[in-house]
Amino acid sequence: MSTTFTLDTSTSRAHPLPEPVRRLTVPAIQGRKKDGATAEPIVMLTAYTARMAQLLDPHCDMLLVGDSLGQVIYGLDTTVRVTLDMMVAHGAAVVRGSYRSVVVVDLPFGTYEASAEQAFATASHVLRETGAAAVKMEGGEVLAPTVEFLVKRGIPVVGHVGLTPQAVNALGGYGARGRSEAEALKIAADARAIADAGAFSLVIEGVMEPLARAITTEIACPTIGIGASPACDGQVLVVDDMLGMFERVPRFVRRFDDVAARVTAAAAGYAAAVRDRSFPGPAELYQPKAKG
Ligand code: KIV
C-alpha cells in the first residue's frame, strides 16, 4: 500500500474541485438545533495534522484543533504550556487537510483572558493565519463579555464549560464537575452566560449527566458533550483517545480501535525485516535499466 498522498487544497474559485465540496458554515451548525431539538447530532473530533484532517473530514461536522495537542502531540503534562504558535501551525494544517468541516481552533491559556481586546487580537490572528472559521475559549460568566465582544465583531465562538483543563492548577485535577448543588448551579449559570453572549455552540466537559442534559434543554445554542450526556446536541472526543492510542482510558472515552497495538505490531514487523535483511526486497529497489 502506498503511503504517499497528495494534499488537494484547490478549493478556491480559481481552482474548483471537480465536484466542489461545500464547507459547512457556522450558521448551519447553529441551525441544527431548532426549537430546542437537534434531529441530526453534531459530530466533532479533534484533529491536529493535515493527513488526519483528511481522514476525519468526510465523517465530521466540526474539527477541533484542541489545545489537547499539548499532551497528544507534544507530550506536555497539561495544556497550560501550549503556545499560540503551536495552535496556528496545527490549525493551518487542519484547514489545509479538510474541505467540509467547520474548523475550530482553541485559544491557548493566557492569550485571551486578560481583556476582550486581548482576545480579539488573538482570535483575529488565529482566523487570519489558519483560515479556520471559529475559535474556542474556556470559561463561564467572567468570560461572557469577551465572547460578546468577539461575536459582535464577526468572530464565531465556541464556549467550553464544566471541566476546563486550562484551569487545572486552580481546579486541582481533572475530576468531573458539578457534583455539589452549588457547583452544578455555577456551571449552569456559566453555560447560560456564554450562550446568551452569542457563542454558536458550547462544549460541556466532564460534568454530571443530568446537569449536561438540563443545560442542553435550557440553552438555545447546540451543546457538544465530552463526558457529559447523550442528550447533548453533539459529541466530541480527542481523536487519539477514540483511536486507542493511549493506555489510559478515561471513563468518558470509547475506543473505536486499538491503533497503538497496530502501530506496535507494524514497528516490530519493520524492525524484524530490517534485521533479517528481508527489507528492502527486490520490488522495493531501483535497478539501472538494462543497456540496449
Ligand atoms: O483541547 C481539546 O481537545 C478540547 C476537547 C477535549 C473538547 O478542548
Oligomer: single chain
The number of domains: 1
Strand tally, please?
10
CATH architecture: Alpha-Beta Barrel
SSE string, helix = H, strand = E?
HEEEHEHHEHEHEHHEHEEHH
What does this structure look like?
The structure is a single chain. Helices cover 36% and strands 14% of the residues. Helix 5 (116-130) crosses helix 6 (144-152). The chain contains eleven helices and ten strands. It is globular, with a radius of gyration of 21 Å. The mean pLDDT is 94. The protein has one domain (2-242): Alpha-Beta Barrel (TIM Barrel), CATH 3.20.20. The protein has 292 residues and is of the alpha/beta class. It binds 3-methyl-2-oxobutanoic acid. Residues 46, 64, 66-68, 106, 160, 203, 205, 226, 236, 238 line the site of 3-methyl-2-oxobutanoic acid (KIV).
Q: How is the topology of this model organized?
A:
Layout: H1 26-30, E1 33-34, E2 37-38, E3 42-46, H2 50-56, E4 62-65, H3 69-72, H4 84-96, E5 102-106, H5 116-130, E6 134-138, H6 144-152, E7 157-162, H7 168-171, H8 181-196, E8 201-205, H9 209-218, E9 223-226, E10 234-237, H10 239-243, H11 259-275
Helix pairs in contact: 2-4, 4-5, 5-6, 8-9
Bound molecules: 3-methyl-2-oxobutanoic acid (KIV).
